[in-house]
Design brief:
CATH superfamily of the largest domain: HUPs
Distance between the termini: 65 Å
Bound molecules: adenosine-5'-triphosphate, manganese (II) ion
Structural class: alpha/beta
Mean pLDDT: 90
Largest sheet: 5 strands, parallel
Strand content: 15-25%
Strand order of the largest sheet: 3-2-1-4-5
Number of strands: 5
Length: 177
């Protein structure tokens, strides 16, 4: 083989290696993009806390930012306003305070793990607030529990997780109870 031919072979091998490397990097980057900004809706139930543990593990998969979302069900608030007495409405303040504490402890845990964190609290219908947050935040992934506070044995999925799975734009990671 002549020297210049050797040269040609060497160059094309190098090009091939470079191009394979480029493709692999691209695939990895695309994969990591899916985990980049995680929306984690929580009702603080056992199953949601199990999902939260998975959120933390996504750091090594390329997750950088987490949006924590808690939705105070507007329909419950309306029902309370209509049927419950004043005492109950006054205790709403304590309840909001407790929610804030729960959220800030999750926020701290995530920050300790090196995530950028944003917290959202909405008074809405849970599934619509989750879909709205997905859109507004540009979340690349939603991590949710299969069930929540009700955790009814016969249900395959809770009503919130079912609607989110059906209607979300991006992938949804459903953590089983
Ligand atoms: P259901 O509410 O239909 O009686 P459930 O309580 O067992 O059933 P879901 O409410 O669907 O189940 O909960 C599934 C997941 O959805 C939870 O693990 C949590 O991640 C999320 N979620 C539920 N409710 C809320 C909420 N109010 N705010 C934020 N996230 C929520
Ligand atoms: Mn629920």
């Amino acid at each position: 083989m002549r020297d210049d031919e050797m040269g040609t072979i060497k160059i094309s091998t190098k090009n091939l290696t470079t191009s394979i490397q480029y493709e692999t990097d691209n695939i990895r980057k695309e994969g990591m993009k899916m985990f980049k900004k995680v929306l984690h809706p929580t009702d603080f139930s056992d199953v949601a806390m199990k999902a939260f543990a998975f959120v933390k593990q996504l750091k090594s998969a390329g997750a950088e930012e987490v949006v924590l979302l808690h939705v105070i069900d507007k329909r419950h608030l309306d029902a309370v306003k209509t049927y419950a007495g004043r005492d109950f409405m006054e205790s709403k303040g304590d309840w909001k305070e407790k929610t804030k504490q729960q959220l800030s402890s999750l926020e701290d845990e995530l920050k300790e793990s090196g995530f950028k964190v944003k917290v959202r609290v909405e008074e809405e219908i849970p599934f619509s607030a989750i879909l709205k947050a997905e859109e507004e935040e540009g979340a690349s992934l939603i991590v949710i529990g299969s069930h929540g506070k009700s955790n009814i044995r016969e249900m395959l999925l809770g009503s919130v997780s079912e609607k989110v799975v059906r209607k979300a734009k991006n992938p949804v990671l459903v953590v089983r109870r």
